[in-house]
Amino acid sequence: MNPFSSGTRLRDMIRAIRACKTAAEERAVVRKECASIRAAISENDQDYSHRNLAKLMFIHMLGYPTHFGQMECLKLIASSGFPEKRIGYLGLMLLLDERQEVLMLVTNSLKQDLNHSNQYIVGLALCALGNICSAEMARDLTPEVERLLQTRDPNIKKKAALCSIRIIRKVPDLAENFMGPASSLLKEKHHGVLIAGVQLCIDLCKASTNALEYLRKNCTEGLVRILRDVSNSPYAPEYDIAGITDPFLHIRVLRLMRMLGQGDADSSEYMNDILAQVATKTESNKNAGNAILYECVETIMGIEATSGLRVLAINILGRFLSNRDNNIRYVALNMLMKAVTVDSQAVQRHRTTILECVKDSDASIRKRALELVFLLVNDTNVKSLTKELIDYLEASDQEFKGDLTAKICSIVEKFSQEKLWYIDQMFKVLSLAGNYVKDDEWHALIVMISNAPDLQGYSVRSLYKAFQTSNEQESLVRVTVWCIGEYGEMLVNNVGVLEMEEPITVTESDAVDVVEVALKCHSSDITTRAMSLVALLKLSSRFPPTSERIREIVMHHKGNVELELQQRSIEFNSIIQRHQNIKSSLVERMPVLDESAYIGKRAGSSQATLSADKSSQPTSSGASSLKLPNGVTKPPASPLVDLLDLSSDDAPVSTSSTTEFLHDLLGGDLISPAPSGGGGTDILMDLLSIGSPSASTDIPVPNTISSKQGNAREPKIAPAPVMDLLDGLPSRNENPVYPSIMAFESSTLKITFSFTKQPGNPQVTVIQATFTNLSSSAYTDFIFQAAVPKFIQLQLDPASSSTLPAGGSGTITQMLTVTNSQHGQKALAMRVRMAYKVNNQEKLEQGQIDNFPPGL
């Protein structure tokens, strides 16, 4: 016989397919077999149609298309013999689904078979209807299914109940047709019928509130009877599992009781006794018993049970926590999290066991237990629970430290009643897991310290001691550096020593050593190093004998690759070396920040961040915002072209952000922020990053300026010329004739600007730039570039020459036309860059011009 003819047996085809060594061979065998089956279908071969359909079902299970055999299913279903119908219905369930239009053709055959005298054929039709029933078929065949629910045969009843579940899920409006038959099924003795009937009642409750009320009135008593009978029944081998009679029926009945008792005190009262009996009599040494107990606990917590019954349920969950099975412990923790809201006191009794689960080796159990502990914390147990969690923090796994640290910080912040206790606990967390503490948390700690003047000395001494052993914890280093910068004299002079403190001796040099270590540590990021530079500047005023050493440390970073650190180093050195008369006022202690205002702003920032994360996506993967606290980095700079061709990290931040709020604390709000229409922040703010940055709504979008020499990319806005602390106050000239200014001066190059206005057009200013070479070598290929904010338009005319003579013997002039669209509201700001060659070597100088005369 041909191995691929229609007469091939199914087992022969399976052998041929399994003998294939490659996927290509398997596809060839399947292709030939499908071709043979198609030929047999086209020839209307009735003798082997059931065999061909069996082959198609196997081919379908292998993942190959078999749609050409769908009509064969309908033909076999329409035949009179049981074997053909069996194969036909099996093919119907496998090869078709409710979305197939051809399924409409089988409705009449199903109706006939549901009324057939042979119970096995009726069972086939019910199985098929329960698997592929569509909404249209459900409406057409519901009367037949209702009738079959009343038959005497338990197998037909069971299949009809399962078919009814499918009908209700497809057409919930038909639920009322099955309420009466469903309640009558609960009086059956056959467990299979009972389970199907209970599941039908559950689906009825979900589909219709009328059905829920009907079953609550008519079935509660029957369910209690079923549960009592099955719980007290003697050994029955056909239903016994691990010594428990039919745990599946137990669980289904408990679920239905939970739905009927939820929100109904009368039904719940009727269930209390049987639930207590199941909870106390069921053994928990087998998994089947644990499943029943868990479902019983969930039912007790879901209905209006008595307080004693709820305590019993929570005690069962406490026993689950001692089980060696991780799954049982996990579901117990889940249920206890729900139970906390119902009876917190009963859950508190198992606090010790729950804390042990926090130390479990299973990550999911640890995380769930930690969430439960967080819910258990209250004013009476906060100190003991926090101590347990902090003790475990040191030994916990690295991947778990982040979650554990966040929860501890939340607990300490939420439940702290004493500032000293809060500070102590946060110092412990910073020492053990400072690298995992979020910025918001250590910012809040700084706010707390600034608001506790009697604890500032204690705080700085505690941090100094913690730094000696845990200087690798980034957040600890930042808080230590900030506190030493603010309260360094308290550390040295032992101000505000508490009774419990051990006396320590710290010299001025020791305090500077700590900041120097933080500054030079290889693991310190730009935030920590910038904070360290600010702290050193403050210490230079508080500890005058160390001023020269501090200046040397600061100048060590004048060539740092990080522009932020390089700029601060140069500016701070200038303050220390040349401006002693203003240094003390610049580095005064930060004003106390309103703690309640900070908490409110922080909460608002969190909500705004959440909504922003949901509604927007980042526009560029490379444009990440660098969030540094105040006194650490400049406030959001003004939108000028970035003449250094560096991407900007400190992007403008919302005025409600936590980072900006901390700017007020860490940098000092010495001057009132510029008004809404002002032109940027003050020189002092830009120099030391102190004060509040201008609102983000006033910051224009970066604009790119094109000139004859090339294009430059725009950075942040330049500060407005409110006050030049290093070079005196600018004079306000009411005369319309504007004085010339020294726009830029270095050891090798000087630039002066002179200004003229067009009559009747105050927005337009013509600037004549004059370049003078102060060196002894001539400059060739001289190029001048300038960048301005978006609200300013700039036009560069060609320069008078590209060669600048040496020694000031000649100059180059170039005209710039500037149009200020917000004249009278925002001042001019400009950043410049000069490129030239000296002896064929390229040189580059740049600077920022912010001393334009008022009125431009």
From TrEMBL:
Cell compartments where the protein resides: Cytoplasmic vesicle, Clathrin-coated vesicle membrane; Golgi apparatus
Protein name (record): AP-1 complex subunit gamma
GO biological process entries: intracellular protein transport; vesicle-mediated transport
GO cellular component: AP-1 adaptor complex
Phylogenetic placement of the source organism: Eukaryota, Viridiplantae, Streptophyta, Embryophyta, Tracheophyta
Keywords: Cytoplasmic vesicle, Golgi apparatus, Membrane, Protein transport, Transport
Entry-linked PROSITE patterns: GAE (PS50180)
Family, per entry: Belongs to the adaptor complexes large subunit family.
Gene responsible for this protein: LOC103710049
Function: Subunit of clathrin-associated adaptor protein complex 1 that plays a role in protein sorting at the trans-Golgi network and early endosomes (TGN/EE). The AP complexes mediate both the recruitment of clathrin to membranes and the recognition of sorting signals within the cytosolic tails of transmembrane cargo molecules.
